[in-house]
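Quick one: structure for this chain?
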Amino acid sequence: MGVVVIDGSTVRDFVNDEEQFKKSVDERFAALDLNHDGVLSKSELRKAFESMRLIETHFGVDVSTPPDQLTQLYDSIFDKFDLDSSGTIDLDEFRSEMKKIMLAIADGLGSCPIQMALEEDGDQNFLKQAADLEASKLAHGSS
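Got it. Here's what it folds into:
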């Protein structure tokens, strides 16, 4: 687990760095596309969210959510990503929704820096990537 200090501008700068953001989102999409068919199915997106354990915990404490409620929640998330209602999520849809999510996080963080403990899951954590990008810019700026 690593600790980073970020604020909304850190996340917004990451999203606005189109090349870096696109590369990060595309890599995440490829990792989620388990059968490598170029689109995400409901089951692939659900596996991704289940692995993040965003719903099954509340401040680190396991909570019991009925399976039908979880399915309804995961289906509604899928529908939000599936912009053209095709039954799959393509890369452009995934990029678009991830950008909205990250900008919403930036708005939520505002301008007050906060410390966040983030899982060390390689380059798959967008908030860690945002902090790393800012740190690299600061390092290059002070050289």
